[in-house]
Amino acid sequence: MNASPSRPVRVLWITPEEQGGIASYSRMLWPAVAEAAHADGQFEPLTLLQTAPDVRADAISAVRNLQPDLVHVQHEYGLFGGTNPFLDGLPRWMRRLRQAVPHGTRIVATAHNVLPDGHRFETRGQGWRGPLYQVANATLLPWLRRHWREGTWRLFDGVIVHSALQAACLQGSGLPLVTTIPLVVPEIPLQSGGQLPNPVPRITVFGYFCPEKGQDVVIEALRHVTTPVRLRLAGGVGHPMNNAYFERCRQRIAEYALGDRVEVTGFVPEEDISRLYQQSDLVVAPFRTTSGSASLVQALARGAAVLASDLPLNRELNDRVPGTLVFFASEDPLDCARQIESLLADTDRRQRLGRQALQYAVNHSPAVIARQHLDFYRRVLET
């Protein structure tokens, strides 16, 4: 490590995204990391660099000028070209980054998406890509998994994941130091004054339309909910490849004659998010797959009662703070419907969920998560 004992370790963050969930995550957490670094004394926070994915070279130029001792990259496959190895720009960019930093500089990453051992390309709702993904699943997966794991994470000196399950997935195979730091929960002032009760209970699903988010599961579940309820699908289409899935969801709403019970908002501006949470009697997170969802922590930050699919990474939140979430069997509309009716009929239970959600938020606040980052930096510097 190139820092001398007489000065602090200079820390630089790089996020190759200017707008989006990871960009927002970085802007929210970096000030807490900078504040903790100043108080700690061992570290000197330089800055947070945010660039559009197609101009990542700007970050290389800035690195040459700043000469950091530790660089922290916020990584998601889509920010570097996706999971297709032939389009993955990370290896070449990392070579340039290594050339730009002083000798001995440590480079670490937060892995915002870890592809598990059993990961396969989703073929449902993918249009013309579906058959191609079927072929890849049948023939290329062993080679692809090596690229997704060793070919990605060996480029770094340390990796932060958001789940102990993800850490276990990355252990071994000559991979660098791996640690688990849960997703930070933003500090959001709760709005004063109670929301007037909804004349008809309202459930809300947040997120861009895509098969992984599972909006269709809740649409199907709504057919089996006999009590009066309105469903708000708060989000739009984040990528053209999901247009077919979005249209399929709209068709099912029409086919099931649910038009008077379902609202599709389209993209939700950040200033409207708190209002939509406050207007919801229940938030449903029907994910088919997840690598850790920012929409879940947004709900917990606001003390929302949340019903989630029982994926292992979702269940891990209850391991940290019992009673944070209630679960339904993933991809099971009937069980989803049963749990929705049970929760809407029990106000006290929803209020208990809200209190546990706020406790989870306290335990995973920006200040707490920032200190865990500094502890990880120390471990990396010792290697």
What layout of secondary structure does this protein have?
Layout: E1 9-15, H1 21-40, E2 43-50, H2 57-66, E3 70-75, H3 90-100, E4 106-111, H4 129-139, H5 141-148, H6 150-153, E5 158-161, H7 164-170, E6 177-180, E7 202-206, H8 215-222, E8 230-234, H9 243-255, E9 262-264, H10 270-278, E10 282-285, H11 294-301, E11 306-309, H12 312-320, E12 326-328, H13 333-344, H14 347-363, H15 366-382
Parallel strand pairs: 1-2, 1-3, 3-4, 4-5, 5-6, 7-8, 7-10, 8-9, 10-11, 11-12
Any overview of this molecule?
- This protein is α/β, with parallel strands linked by helices and 383 residues long.
- It has 15 helices and twelve strands.
- It has a six-stranded parallel β-sheet with strand order 2-1-3-4-5-6, sandwiched between helices. The protein has a six-stranded parallel β-sheet with strand order 9-8-7-10-11-12, sandwiched between helices.
- The longest helix has 20 residues.
- It is globular and about 65 Å long.
- The chain starts with 8 loop residues before the first strand and ends with a helix.
Largest sheet: 6 strands, parallel
Span between termini = 9 Å
Q: Biggest sheet, strands in spatial order?
A: 2-1-3-4-5-6
Low-confidence stretches: none
| Count of alpha and pi helical runs | 15
Gyration radius, in Å:
22 Å
Strand content: 15-25%
Kindly report the average pLDDT value. 90
- Molecular shape: globular
H/E element sequence? EHEHEHEHHHEHEEHEHEHEHEHEHHH
* Strands, count: 12
Which bin fits the share of residues in helices?
40-55%
Derived structural class: alpha/beta
